[in-house]
Queue: 4 jobs
Job 1
Amino acid sequence: MVVQAMWRRRPAWQLRTLRASLKLEPILISSSAIRVVLAVSLFALLPVLGLAEDSAPPPEPSARPLRLRHIVLKPEESRFLLLPLTNYVNTAFDTAQVSGSFSQDDYWHNHELVLDRIADPFNSIDEDGGWGHFFRQEFASAAILPNLTLHLLGNGYDFRALAEWYDEHRVPFPYFWAFLSSYAGYLGNEAIEISNPEIDASDHIADLYIFNLVGNLLFMSDTVTDIVHNQWQLRNWPGQPVFDMHDKKILNASNNYVLRPRLWSEHVRPFLYFGLHYFAGASLALDNDTGVSVGVGLATTDPFADDLLAKIQPSGGIFWDDHDRLLTSVIFNGTDESIVRVNLYPDLFPFRTLDLGLIGTLDLGFFFGIPQQGVPTFGIAIEKLVAIGVS
């Protein structure tokens, strides 16, 4: 499994106890409780699948042939090694990076609240204000931007990568498992979002029943996947989730997508970056198929503020990649009103190829952030070992 070690100093008044952070509320015996058990069981299955990858030898040529055309998956890249688990964490805790608006407290209990809302979508929509309110909020407001870019395009792309990962590991019915893995992550994402009382049932219903579903169905098509991946050059440059031992929270988790179509030349391409940051800029080709991308735009800081200027702040980033593998990212004025956030990814370091015997290669990534208020944070990502953290 992915190992995350974290060092973070906090003022004493910010300390939360382990009991408060990990408290599990009672779950009533109901139909929604059964679905919670299924969701938790799925999450428990993902690390097992990840460990199975580390322990199992590569498939023999005589093993069953691949069922899918592999377009997205590149097994040699570090971000694909434990894809079901890392995609779950980055997806579920993506919006947690806006900690002023969303809380990780009562994470598992909030799953039940989300499931209760979506169990009877028509009744929930009526209670929220009816179909007029539903369409205005989800299709005729600023919400349409993340609905299309994240829930439809980004989620669909990740769904296809998950299906190819399961197929690469000869798991039967790869689309079925990819569907469950994808929805497990987004159910966790909705559980984070429901911590804010401004989020109503219409948000969950539009995300899970419409945009996520359409995205998954679209990317079952080889033609759609080929166009998006090879012509549009869509990629997911995810965060490196770090477990904060001090506050018992996940930090630095994110799904970030880039579009770099070859419109101008092989050396200069337009660059679009979206997630909870929206940047536009240019990507410049360097020697040995490496590249530098620079973008400026906006970062989400408080999506529920009354003043538009309080919802966002000017932001920008610099990214270095090698054959589309993200090596380094530096984001200025990002979410959580950070001054700078730096990620150094495992593919950057030459010791990633060092064979350590039983544990294989040593994959290390590093994270460093400076907030406008508080103290700096530092994290180390170590794959294939037991997670240990200090604060």
Job 2
Amino acid sequence: MKIPFVKMHGCGNDFILIDETETSAMTKRLRHRFARHACDRHRSIGADGVIFLARIKMKDAALAARFFMPDGSESEMCGNGARCVAAYAVYTGIAPVRREIAIVTMRRIVRALVSQRQHNIFMVQVSLGSPKLAPSDIPVRAYGDTFIGRKIRVPTVGIVEMTAVNTGVPHAVIFVDDIEHIDVERVGSAVRHMRTIFPHGTNVDFVEFDGALRVRTYERGVERETLSCGTGIAASAVAAYLTGKASANRAIEIVTRGGHLTARIAVKERLLETVLLTGPAEVAFCGEIEF
């Protein structure tokens, strides 16, 4: 069976988009198999994930999106993936530039807006919704109302101070002095697999703050560092706000290995209403894959 696809990326965080409006919808088991196959960078297309899309009828232009990781697992949310979905909607004519797009994910509806288009590059803002801070909502096994600046003994690593946030998926944010000399894969893997603390595992973000937030992320499901992670950027911005390093209601410059973005934490009457993530999304190429 030949399956058409569009390959896209948001600051190097790359995805294979499958529009199931145009093809037969796969079962969850087939999606699991397809993601494991198609994301292989040596034997197939290669990507950080696969996004399965379906067009749905709503008041706004709308797409349902399901996110699958290279290990075949399904993720509740993907920030850069959502930005690519919005860009895809404009690229394929589902929505025009500067019209709000509703992206229906497993757990929430994400609102997105493409403000500019230049050839196959799109400037996209997504509103990721209110971050979850309660340990039971992240989830993280801990006492208290939040998990901010907690010191945890990590096997093979030592004592690490971290803040846990859920911005669609769980993240552990670790502030460091020199991000270039952190062993992201070793430390990230150790924290990610601490099931005694994170029962569902976690993504792990390493952040250096020097006026901008410099972010590197070890992604659960990819099981390595990616060039950029949208929910990780959002979690890092929230953690910076919670620890007094960044202010709300203003753009925070974000620097990742894949490019630059901005994040803005919308706070009203001391409530964190949403995190707005803005940056480029690009169509790399289109094709068909035999599966």
Job 3
Amino acid sequence: MIVGFLALRKGFLKVMGALIQAALERGHEVVLLWDPIEPKAGERLTRAELGAWRGARIVEYDRRTALLPVLRAAGVTALVGPRAWEILRAFGRADELGAFPAAGVKLYSVDYGLDTITSDPAGYRAVDVTFYASAWQRELHWRVKANGFAGLGNRATLQARSAVVGSTMLDQLAGVDRAAVRKRYGLGDRPVVLLLTLKMKVPDPWRRLVWGQSPRAWRAARALATGHAGLLPEIWRGPSYPDLVDAVRRLCDRSGAALVVKSREKNDDPAFLRRRADAFVFDESVYPYTSMELMAVADLCVHFQSAGVLEAAFAGVPSVSVQISQEHLKGYATYAEFYGAEPDTLQNFAGVVWSATPGETIARLDGAGLADFRVDAERRRAYVAQFVGFDDTQSSDRVLDVIERRGLGPA
């Protein structure tokens, strides 16, 4: 079987890197569809980076042009991508999807950090199989998008067009060379506290006015001028972004730990973060991807209600999920499930991840040592089962099992 992958962005390979490798190891011919012109900051891939998958054939593809002729020329019969239907629609390829079956091409969509939950149910019509990490995720998708799914058929129909396989993204943990990661960043044998930075460049007044880089007086004046007077108490008296990071730094100093700050180019980080860090890291590696490499050597992770909570839990790393404004995301139907702080939810699952306000986080970090943050094995198993599905780094093989079965004959 010739399996094609939409290798258009670095982020896509976070999801598919282990899957590509598994396909090669099973003896499939692999085609990586690569567009060297990627406008999104920090996401452009080089041909050299794609060389991580030895034996894969790299095919240049301009996303603004027809896709099906490229697939036919390459002999691709199975095409895989993260949120495949949405991505191909965004690139203007929606009109071609109806011709895929006649051309003998099946389309598969893999999950990117639970993002599939927000997908349009209409994608089920064009995608042969939509993959989910866990049964919880699939059921949540069917529930919050119930009106859209209602027109596609009964439950048996939806089950036939989907599969629960675990996270192909998290499979990459198995390939991390921890000693090499420690050497690369000069960490030695020290414990590691990993801080995932807050994305500042979002349409959320709180981040700009309460935790912005400008002087407090300027931010207070700006809040008054723009109708956000309610933020004034936090601007003048609330804990700041530097205050919180300083608390993380103090914990590291007391514990003899290295502070590794992981960011992305699009995060628009304030300059003070580099000064507090022992290592400041962007997305440098593609396979295994950087965040997973760093999580593999971490002893504690501090993040801002990030999807990195899944990586931490999977790697057995305790994490603190700092509650901050997510005003720009409140319109999502799954806002409570993704960003809520109720017990036993994604961001607040005692024994795995603890949710806290910035003030609570500072107080807890100042009164604790690293040994006070420990993962409870039973709680972790429960968390992984609910949110990630499987704990064996074999999700890519489960995806390929499905693709191979579908490739033998009609669905």
Job 4
Amino acid sequence: MARIQLRDTTIYIEDGLSGTALSNETALEIWAGASESTTTPGVAATTDEVQEIATYTIDPIGGTFTLTLNLDGEAAFTTAAIAYNASAATVETAIDVAATAAGVAGWSNGDISVSGGDLTTAALVLTFDGTSVLQTDQGQTTIDGTALMLANAVLDLDIDTVVLNSTVTDQVPVGARFTLPDEVDSPVHTVNARTPSSGTTTNIAFTPVLAGGGANNTVITFLSQRITVKIGEGDLTWTESREMIYDRDRDLLDTVRLGQEQPVSVDLNFTFEYVTTESGQNITPVDALKQIGEATEWVSSSSDLCEPYAIDIYVVHNVPCGTDQDQDFRFQDFRWESLDYSVQDATIAVSGQCNVSNITTTRAASFV
């Protein structure tokens, strides 16, 4: 039997929600846009082309952008990510690296000279004056800023094509977490409202704000619903067991073999300091365990929804100081079998079993 003292411990109770939807933001430019133009077209034997990337139309506070160049006679190529407030010299270097990697014929560093910027305050000016690009009518350079972090808060998205593993497969639960590709630092968002309130969900409001991404037809990946329980005092014990079968030959011990798998037994006794949900819902640990109250739309963590409702419990031992990593314990597909309450002691005791033969233990700098 293993045991953990629960001081300096956080418990995360999660359901098994998963699925996807598509952003339906056809009329909304999510990222902090900047426009491109050719101010001086290139003319053979007389004039070098000059192009301009205008300042952002919506001020970003972080993230990156890329430039795609369409040189005459060459395949289009794209720079690596460039910081949102990069200097002209940094942008010029990024173009040099990308052009060299693309094998642009006759390219020399600096063939496109960049001035002005940064884009938060002034336009970037690209002058095509090097040997490989001068005095030629070039294709338009374009900017992609979907990985920029917005200053203006984007707090809701129109969505369609919702496919979830819940009973109502096209209704996004309030409390569902999700991610979007190409966001800065890959934040996890939590749904705090949906439209309409029932039936097929067409709009979700959420927190925190978008950090880029979200353009039309972007895939939204839904994650489990979660409550966070900060433990004051308590105790957690669990037992992993296995059945051993001892075969005999003429009444003498002979061979040994494994019998049937045995579920992990769990006993949890605690007082909690507070419970939080990013969605603002009032969900208690008992609500989450029983799928009641504002947890009625929670989805069983079991892949077989015909089985009794189950949840996953993550116990994270938070190292209070120093550089040691946190230790995480995952109790998968837990089903409660008894609940005991003490008003006098302000404690909850829960016992049950997990539909696994052993728990998962990891060490990490942080829990996501």
